[in-house]
Structure to design on (717 residues):
């Protein structure tokens, strides 16, 4: 399958991760300095030249395990620490968000616009640090260059590769359930209405031609949907209006992207929830962060303090967290994050992640598997 | 016109791949075989016509006698030749050919994979039986491998490599009307929407090349000398194979078409796309005026599903089956 998936995977998953972390840091009243430091450090590492160059090499997509390990390492390039259970939850949210974006992407090439939406938002997050912004711009230029010559067919192959990667994952996300982009059974909604993608004609017409190429007959057929003409095309430049809203920050209040894809959920409905915008989203994130240890971010000048974020540590604490949901229990009822059933896998993952603290001294690793080079290189940063 | 029947459950969900359903009807045994690809596995179901017996088998993509290293499968398709039926499976590593029940692998062909991956992905995709004894398989480079298949046994050989396409092959189809009069035997399609029309033989002959419009043609059929092609724009186009004359153009779907099929005895056409719709059409050829008429007959919506495979289960189009991404069932419809 496609050998060009990794740069887009990291930009989009990394972007989703930053949206969530940004929201969490603010919700916990983390000091602005610490928040900025965490986000800047992660973005700096993610968009660094060696990291990106490694991703840009033609190669197969990593496994979920490897991907999660690399993303954990990425998160830990900042002063923040996440335990494996928290990372699992975070990973699920990131994956489902990206799966949704890839699934409903109007045409395969729009995967780039989704990626650029993430990059634009990341640029905004680090805008106060020019060095990091430059890094982001450089990477963005490289991405534009690398994918400039890809055809629609190649983008579809890339998309198909990603869809295989996401196959059978149906974790329910409260934000999606509320806006009805996801059904209670975990599957995403597909509309048979709305604007058709760029270069697609609105269905319904049959044209017949004679051997001279002249149209001799025209007839219509019922489409079973209600489609409209395409909207204008988004910009593929470094800066510009991307037009499609997939890939923008869905954790921001009053986000209007959902209304584009679900006519029954228009912007005014969302605005009505003035007091508690995206209640379920907030509740879900609160649920996730319920056991977040107090982030020991003492603002001692000149001394860097790491702080730990622990989301779910044990299943029991998870249940306690849900039970204490109180009045929002009915809403909690729809939140169905797959419980971590594979204790062994989790321990294994923690062991691998833990290994990275120890591995920093190792330079040679003869038995390199996919992603090992990348991880080793990250240790050198 | 059609109503939904009981679905067949499969062991894994279908992957988002073009033409991801193959059907083989075995009348003497009153059985139908279905194959659906899931990542590196082919799910085979054998269904008895009385609906009482289903048996399942899974095939993995790998080199024979190699314990590990499976690769992602691009397509699995039954190839019906006068003397035998084979199941052909194409992947990133190579091409496997099995007896039609999946019991024995009779042939393996490895693709040339470079040591370090290049920017172009490597895989085989596009499968068609042609005429008496050929099976043609497309490759990501645009080449078409022509295999000579004896009436029995595993002495299958690579007879020719056709180098005409410059972009990855997406699908291939042979003339399915059964008519001996048709000149063109095979049509091949690629990622740029280009179509090549061939005559088979010891040396395959290129009869015509129909340019694409820079939009991938994901599925193609050849019936009574007419090429029926489905595109990423959701359009279906009908061309006269040998001359390239455009007969008809249908704005059929709002998203990428993933599968086309024709019921050769009745001229029914099936189209399925990522927009969750399956449509049934009727094709009428009028040789006197050299024209083709397309009439729309029926729609089925598979809610919230991006369809990846749709095939008629018989030559008249009395029944058809559908697969969708992330769906672990084969949905069936029968004429009312």
């Amino acid at each position: 399958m496609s050998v060009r998936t990794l740069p887009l995977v990291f930009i989009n998953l990394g972007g989703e991760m930053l949206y969530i972390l940004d929201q969490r840091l603010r919700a916990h009243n983390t000091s602005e300095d610490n928040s900025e430091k965490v986000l800047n450090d992660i973005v700096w590492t993610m968009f660094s030249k060696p990291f990106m160059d490694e991703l840009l090499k033609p190669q197969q997509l990593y496994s979920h395990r490897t991907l999660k390990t690399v993303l954990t390492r990425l998160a830990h390039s900042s002063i923040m620490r996440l335990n494996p259970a928290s990372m699992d939850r975070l990973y699920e949210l990131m994956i489902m968000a990206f799966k949704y974006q890839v699934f409903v992407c109007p045409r395969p090439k729009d995967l780039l616009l989704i990626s650029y939406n993430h990059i634009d938002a990341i640029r905004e997050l680090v805008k106060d640090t020019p060095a990091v912004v430059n890094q982001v711009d450089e990477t963005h230029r490289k991405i534009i260059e690398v994918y400039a010559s890809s055809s629609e067919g190649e983008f579809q192959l890339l998309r198909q590769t990603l869809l295989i990667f996401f196959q059978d994952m149906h974790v329910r996300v409260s934000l999606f359930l509320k806006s009805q982009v996801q059904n209670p059974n975990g599957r995403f909604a597909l509309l048979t209405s709305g604007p058709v993608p760029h270069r697609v004609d609105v269905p319904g017409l049959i044209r017949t031609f004679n051997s001279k190429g002249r149209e001799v007959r025209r007839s219509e057929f019922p489409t079973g949907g209600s489609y409209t003409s395409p909207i204008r095309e988004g910009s593929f430049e470094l800066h510009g209006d991307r037009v499609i809203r997939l890939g923008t920050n869905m954790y921001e209040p009053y986000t209007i992207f959902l209304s584009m894809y679900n006519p029954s959920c228009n912007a005014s409905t969302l605005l009505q929830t003035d007091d508690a915008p995206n209640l379920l989203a907030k509740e879900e994130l609160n649920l996730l962060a319920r056991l977040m240890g107090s982030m020991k971010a003492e603002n001692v000048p000149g001394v860097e303090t790491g702080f730990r974020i622990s989301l779910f540590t044990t299943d029991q604490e998870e249940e306690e967290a849900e039970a204490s949901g109180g009045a929002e229990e009915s809403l909690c009822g729809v939140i169905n994050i797959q419980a971590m059933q594979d204790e062994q896998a989790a321990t294994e993952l923690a062991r691998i992640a833990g290994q990275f603290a120890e591995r920093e001294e190792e330079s040679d690793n003869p038995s390199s598997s996919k992603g090992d080079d990348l991880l080793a290189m990250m240790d050198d940063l | 016109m059609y109503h939904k029947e009981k679905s067949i459950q499969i062991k894994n969900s279908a992957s988002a791949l073009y033409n991801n359903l193959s059907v083989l009807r075995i009348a003497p045994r009153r059985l139908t075989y279905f194959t659906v690809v899931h990542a590196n596995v082919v799910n085979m179901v054998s269904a008895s016509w009385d609906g009482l017996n289903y048996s399942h088998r899974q095939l993995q993509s790998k080199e024979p006698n190699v314990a590990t290293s499976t690769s992602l499968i691009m397509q699995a398709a039954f190839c019906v030749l006068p003397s035998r039926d084979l199941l052909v499976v194409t992947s990133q590593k190579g091409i496997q050919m099995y007896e039609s029940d999946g019991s024995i692998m009779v042939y393996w062909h490895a693709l040339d994979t470079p040591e370090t991956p290049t920017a172009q992905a490597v895989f085989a995709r596009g499968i068609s039986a042609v005429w008496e004894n050929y099976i043609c398989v497309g490759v990501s480079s645009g080449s078409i491998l022509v295999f000579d298949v004896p009436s029995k046994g595993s002495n299958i050989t690579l007879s020719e490599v056709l180098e005409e396409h410059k972009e990855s092959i997406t699908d291939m189809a042979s003339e399915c009307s059964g008519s001996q009069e048709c000149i063109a035997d095979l049509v091949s399609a690629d990622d740029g929407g280009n179509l090549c029309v061939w005559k088979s033989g010891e040396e395959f002959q290129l009869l015509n090349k129909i340019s694409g419009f820079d939009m991938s043609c994901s599925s193609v059929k050849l019936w009574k000398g007419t090429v029926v092609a489905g595109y990423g724009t959701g359009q279906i186009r009908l061309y006269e194979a040998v001359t390239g004359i455009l007969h008809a153009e249908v704005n059929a779907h709002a998203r990428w078409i993933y599968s086309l099929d024709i019921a050769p005895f009745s001229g029914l056409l099936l189209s399925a796309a990522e927009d969750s719709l399956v449509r049934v059409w009727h094709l009428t050829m009028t040789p006197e005026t050299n024209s083709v008429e397309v009439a729309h007959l029926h729609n089925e919506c598979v809610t919230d599903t991006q369809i990846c495979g749709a095939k008629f289960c018989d030559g008249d189009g009395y029944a058809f089956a559908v697969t969708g991404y992330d769906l672990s069932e084969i949905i069936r419809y029968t004429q009312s």
Observations:
- Chain B touches chain A through 60 residues (CB under 8 Å).
- The radius of gyration of chain B is 18 Å.
- Chain B is about 0% helix and 55% strand.
- Chain B has a mean pLDDT of 93.
